[in-house]
Amino acid sequence: MPEIRNDKTQHCASTVLTNMCTVKVALLFFSFAVQCLSCPFPPPCLCDARSPTVYCRSLNMTSLPKINPANGSWTVFLNNNKLRHLPSNAFFGIKVHMLVLDNNEIVKVDDHAFNGSEDSLIFLELAGNKLSSLPSAIARLQNIMSLSVSQNPLTDLDQEVIANISKSLLFLDFGSSEMLKFPRSIKLLKTLASIDLSDVTFTSLPEDAFQPFVNSLNVLGLHNTSLAELPSSINLLNSLQNLKLDRNRNLSAAAISKSVPNGLPGLTDATFQNNGLSTLPNIFLKASHLYIITVLDEPISSLGDDCFTPNFSSNFQVMRMNNTQLTRVPSCLSSVESIKRLEITYNNISSIEEDDFMNMKNLNILVLSWNPITNVSDKAFERNDALSYLIFEQTKLQYIPRAIQNLKSPQLLNLSGCHIQCTCENLGWMKQWKRRPDYFQIVGECWNLRMNLMTFIKGEIPKCPN
């Protein structure tokens, strides 16, 4: 058996060579190994033949390089270049599985641009180009599942193209400021699982906009739209699992609640970002499968007491409210037993009160970083038996809260960036904390000493007077 010296080749062929007993068979697989490493695109493009994947990103390319024929089903990244035209047979010689052409300057795609990959191209990303119409070449893709054409000056989605891909398409990302009405052709896509609509300036959708997908739609994203209301057909989306609303400045919480009176019972993941919301919409009470809510960059100062009920979803485990305007932990959250991770960062909370987390018996991780917290009640966390990780980075605390003595199984207290004063007067109480676990780590620095907190706790506190 000949020696195989190339390490990558040996990796590619080792599995099949291990049990080969003849030189003839070994040479056959050695040949296959060399072939599987051939890259169809010349430098400066890079290849990972084990995937197989081609990386031609951010190379200032103005035209496609000549492709060398290669076996395999390839993923090709050509995003962030300066391509303007996809000619016929642009990728002939390889089978393309996923093609990423985001953020180029493409104005034209020839009818036969995807020749040779009509049956293999499943994911096509053309967002951020200069297409004024949906290329007819897309209609030739027999098995396309995901199409992204947002951030192109498209005024409509060609009905013939959409009709030809309607049986296979599952994921659609579209929309532009030039699109003055919701495309009628969308009704043909009766198996869509995901819709992302971006940048449109019309203020409403047809009432039956979501009617065709009532049994299929799992994901709905509305991004940077001028929508002031949602269509009534959203109430029929019982299979909707993921809702993301970001930069919809005309869409108030009241309007969302009014548009969705039946709630979204299948919802598992909801994200609200930079919509200008003053509170959260009241759409969660029937969401018995809800797992996570993420709120980012919203001017929310409070939540209604009826936003949640204690046991509306036993699956609800993660709540994130980052960069809002809360001044205290919302009381409606403190009643939700199922939450395991609570993040409220970059807010205006200055004090942690005794009952802030009163009924959160499953809370395990609490993140309150970047709040102006100066005080933590000594009786905080008394009923949080599962709480183990407290992250208070960059708060205004100058002491280690005595409330950590209430924790049943503390693992970590992170006080990085806090101005902790390491003195016996300030921290001497820890000498009397006989049940402090040895594995409990307190991270941070003494503001008044060149010493980290654990060094002070272990080395200096025992010297403090009783």
CATH-defined topology of the domain at 41-202: Leucine-rich repeat, LRR (right-handed beta-alpha superhelix)
Structural class: alpha/beta
> What is the class of the domain at 41-202 in the CATH system?
Alpha Beta
In DSSP terms (H or I, runs of 4 or more residues), the helix count works out at: 7
What is the CATH H-level superfamily of the domain at 41-202?
Ribonuclease Inhibitor
Beta fraction: 15-25%
Helix content: 10-25%
- CATH architectural category of the domain at 41-202: Alpha-Beta Horseshoe
Apparent shape: globular
- Taking the alpha carbons of the first and last residues, their distance comes to 78 Å
Residue-averaged pLDDT: 90
Describe the structure.
About 10% of the residues lie in helices and about 20% in strands. It has about 475 residues and is α/β, with parallel strands linked by helices. Among the domains are: about 1-35, no CATH class; about 40-200, Leucine-rich repeat, LRR (right-handed beta-alpha superhelix) (Alpha-Beta Horseshoe). It has an 18-stranded mixed β-sheet, with no helix packed on it. α1 crosses α2 (about 25-35). The longest helix is centred in the N-terminal third of the chain and has 14 residues, at about 25-35. It is globular. About 35% of the residues are buried.
